Predict the structure.
Amino acid sequence: MKISDVIKILNGKLVAGGESDREVGAIVANDLMSDVLLTDSDDILLLTSLASDQAVRTANIVGAAAVVVHNAKPLPATMCQVADTLGIPLISSPLAKFDACVKLYLAREAEGKGE
Amino acid sequence: MSDYQPKILSGGEHRSDDEIMADYGVSEDSPLVIMELLQRFHVKDIMRSRNIISLTRENTLREAKELMRDNKISGLPILEGKRLFGMVSMNQIIKALEGGWLDDPCQQHMSTSLVVLEEDIPVSIALKYFHNYTFGRFPVLNKEHEFVGILSQRDITSALLKELTSEISKLEGKTEAAVVEQRPVENVKSEWVIPYYSLRQFVIVRNDLANAGKAANEIKRMLKEAGVNSKIVRKVAVAAYELEINVCIHSLGGSLTIVLDTHKVTIIAKDNGPGIKDVDWACQDGTSTANDWIRSMGFGAGMGLSNCKRVADTFNIKSVVPTGTTVICEFNLSA
C-alpha cells in the first residue's frame, strides 16, 4: 500500500509535506506521542487526532511514511510548515479514526497483508 | 435568617467553546504560551485583593450608594461573615433613587439570582462566563461556598499581560543565548563529522512547545549525516525527544547536549529546576505531574523517562530540589 493508495482509501487530501510514492509499513493509530515513539516498525502510517506540530515531529523521529489527521480536523499552519520542512506527507481525512482503521485494515486484507 | 445559597452555574454556553475563544482572538493557531497561560492560571491566582468592601443585609441602599461613590466602585457584595447573600449594583441604586427607597435595607432590593465562579476553575473557563453573561464582575467562592473575592475582566487582562511580559523577556534572553551556545565548541571543527568527537548544545525554553522537538529532529539529522547506524539513530532520537519535551514542560528551562565520539553517543539533558522530589517514582511508567493542557498536546502520560531507559544502553539521572535535574543517556555505537 502506497501513500497515494492511503489518500484514496481514506477519501483524504494531501495538505503538506509533498507528494511521495513511499510504501506504507505498519499502521499506528495513536494520540499519545510517547507510545508512538516506542514503535519499532519502519515506515509507519500514523493516524492521530493530534493536530499539532508535535505529531509531525514525532513521526519524523520514528521515520514514519506519513501522518493522517482524521475527522477533517483543522490543521494549524505551523503543523503544515513542519511537515513541509521535514518532508513528511500530511493527510487530512474526513473519516473518524475507527472508520479509517477499518478501511485500511480491509484494504490491507485485500492485499493479503491484514495486520 | 434566610437560608439563601447563591447558584453556582457551571455552564450556560450557547455557542461552542471554539467560537467563544475566537471572539477573544484565541484559536488553535494562537501562540502556545497563551493557551498554556489560560489553562495554567486559576481564578484564585488572579482575582483582586481579598479585602473586598462589603455590606450586610441590614445596611441601607443609601449606605451602599455612599460606599460605592467614595470608593469609585460599581457593585458591592452583601455578606454575613464569609457567606454571600447578594450583590448591590449601580442598577439597584438608580432604581432606589428613582423610586425613593434609598433607606430600605439592602436585602429588600439586592440581586439574589447570582452567577458565581469557583476559585479553582481555569481562567479559560472564566473568560467564557464573561462572554455568556453581561456582568462586568463575578463573585468568587471557594469549595465550601464561602465568599473569597471578586473577579473582573480587568483582573484577567492585568494578570495575562504581566505573565506574558515575563515570558517574552525570558524568550528573548534565551534566543540570544541559543545563538551563542549553538556555535561549535572551541577546538572542534565546524562540521559535525570529525575524527574524535563533536558536541552540540541546544537551549530549551520552558513551555515553548511550539519549538520543542526541534533539537531532537536536528540531532537525528546530524547523526544520519555522520553515518551512524539507523537503529541507533532512532534510539538516540527517541531519548532526545522525550528529554527535550520533559525539560520543556516540567522544568524552568535548560539544555540538551549531544556528544558523539568514536565509541558512543551521549545525550545530556540539564534543567534549571525545580528538581524532582522522588526520582524513582518519576521513572515509573504512567507517573506524571503534567496538567491537562500538556496532555492535550499528546504528552504528559508519564512515559518519558521510562522510554529513555528502554532505548539507552546506560541511563543516569540526578535531581536536586530546587536546583534541577540532569539526565545522561549513552548509546554504544557498536551495538
In short: Chain B touches chain A at residues 28-29, 209-210, 212-214, 216-217, 220, 230, 234, 237-238, 241-242, 245, 297-299, 301, 303-304, 307, 310 (CB under 8 Å).
